[in-house]
From TrEMBL:
It comes from Diversispora eburnea. Its cofactor is Mg(2+); Mn(2+). It catalyses: ATP + H2O = ADP + phosphate + H(+). Keywords: ATP-binding, Helicase, Hydrolase, Mitochondrion, Nucleotide-binding, Transit peptide. Residues 351-509 form the Helicase C-terminal domain. CDD domains: DEXQc_Suv3, SF2_C_suv3. PANTHER family: ATP-DEPENDENT RNA AND DNA HELICASE, ATP-DEPENDENT RNA HELICASE SUPV3L1, MITOCHONDRIAL-RELATED. Coiled coil: none annotated. One of its GO terms (molecular function) is ATP binding. One of its GO terms (biological process) is mitochondrial RNA 3'-end processing. This is RNA helicase. Gene3D superfamilies: 1.20.272.40, 1.20.58.1080, P-loop containing nucleotide triphosphate hydrolases (3.40.50.300).
Amino acid sequence: NKNSRFTPYVPFPEAQEKSETLDTEEYISLYESANNMKDNVMGHIQNFIGRNRGNERRDEIKKTTILEKVLGAIPSLKQWSDELFEEILLEFERSKDVRRASTDMGVQILKFRSAIRKFVENVWNDRIDRCKRDTLKQAYVEGGREAVEKTLKASFLEFSQEYMSDADKERFNSLKQLSDLSFPAEWHPAARTMQRKIICHVGPTNSGKTYNALKCLETANSGLYCGPLRLLAHEVFERFNNKGIPCNLVTGEERRELEGVVVPLTSSTIEMANLQRQVDVAVIDEIQMISDSQRGWAWTQALFGLQAKEIHLCGEASAVPLVRTICESINEEVEVREYQRLSKLVINENSLNGDLKKIEKGDCVVTFSRKAIFSLKHEIEEATGLRCAVAYGGLPPETRAQQAKLFNDPESGFDVLVASDAVGMGLNLNIKRVVFETVKKYDGVSVKYVPVPQIKQIGGRAGRFGTINPVGYVTALEPMDLRYVHQAMAAPIKNLEMAGLQPTMEMVELFAHQLPDVKEFSSLLEKFEDLARVDGQYFLCNFHSQKLVANSIEHIPMTIPERFSFVTGPVNTSDVRLMKNIQKFAMMHNQSRPCKIDEVVKLPAKVPHNDDMLSEMESIHRTLMLYLWLSYRFQETFVDVEKARELKLRCENTIHESLQTLKIPRKRPRTTTKDIRAISKLEEKNKTERNKSFDNNKSFTQQSSLIYSKNRERVNPHFRQKPLRAFN
């Protein structure tokens, strides 16, 4: 109940004085982070039970392992403390990666040892401006140990200049200048000569904000739409042309240009926004994605670089303060137009209590795993007799649109939609009720709670103004998940703080010329990351995927611009088939011979009837999209464009046909009491084995403890006052 009042669990000792009674909205605002949510929920449970049962029960309350398993087995961050800080610093001091980066910059190995020790000591004593404890603590909260280590590494390379020779110091400063991203506004001088008007259309899902922005674009003499998805770019392209307003389409994989008429408007994906053309009106959709760790740079680039008299930004209100700050830096004012939801949204008080028989026509059941989607589809169809359409990120956008059309059509026979978070953006859906099958998802590293803004966006898809479902409902399959949904939907907006940046190809090429000895492109990108300097309100977008692609084609000779084009292509690095195909494409380009699509792709003769065959078709579609993307960059190599488009269309139709008949009789993985007991037994067994190992290797452990304690003493002179802990 959002009106209830309680004393929240406070994770950091120094914040205890702030732990006054808060209402639920304030509590969620403070602790809505996906990384910290479980810790705070568990802490609150402990405090609540402790206050009611008395101090004598506190020892039992601490034993929450099984309860944590029930809540989702979410690996969480340790709380920030002096002990954790020491641990991070000692690992940093021993890091081979830091030593290699330093010696590559010209620091001799003996000097490196002195430099790293002095640096660690200075960081511990708060003498390094960029590594103040508060700064590192904030980095830890936002990005874990990796974020802290990145901050330390960048600061150490700066610190180690005094241990370099004059020649190496000069080269280091040159590299720093080339990787300085502190002033992104200066990258777009043509836009700086214009006095642009910035208008923010902000509001929740189904509030009409994008509709009103597109109305302004519709009446413009010239204009540009920039969307986050090909699906949205297609939708705007078709919408304008169906109204008799000529509009071109430009995406990374496709160009549709009308001939014989004057075309005032262009609909494009955000990465393909034309920054060289002057227009009257531009629309940038989903502006909150400016803070996305992978693609945020494209929104920042469009906001700085579009040569438009009027720029309309559509999205969440959380982006407004950041947009204001960015625009103030270039002397541009921001007008904010706020919108309210057009249809009513009701968060149900009761869940479905795990009963899939309660699924009804018009429901959209949301889960966050591809396998779970097909399992759910089968279980719902078996339990209710209702047929299910599906939508998830791995499907081609065109197929997702076809599945959405089936769901929206009351005569199609498909009454339920089973979807992933892909349902939150890019699809027009007539959903009566959103049902969260789970509120946790795997993010590539660990299982975490779905962030609050995403819960709001997905839940907001229920109900649509002017349709047969004017009132929307939101619930969850399980009672425990519904509690989180209630808290998330009631949580106040958390403002965005930083915008993403990415270097241009020219910057990377100039940087590479200063490092002729660095042959591997992934190492080059890593060094750019290490040395890049960004202003406080910006961050460097993640190079992880680009480095994986770079490693896969490293053995193929290419120029820096060619390699940059390949590594920035639309590649899902978890798709093994696609990673092999990009190697084939790179090899053919290197050999300067035309690449026929039939040499790489062959469509199966049969419609997929199981999960493996469907996965193969999805991978083939991704290969075709990559081929088309490359065909616009290397026209002399990727010449089979029409054939690739034909295969792409056939592939999409085959996948769509498969989804209508595919049945995968597989139960969803569910945590049972039996599973919890088995986990507990395994933990006890592992603990016993660790104790045996400790006894058998006692002398080695004592020696390790002595070494560890000496290192800690050097970092923290007060360590002697603390009990010695075994380094086991």
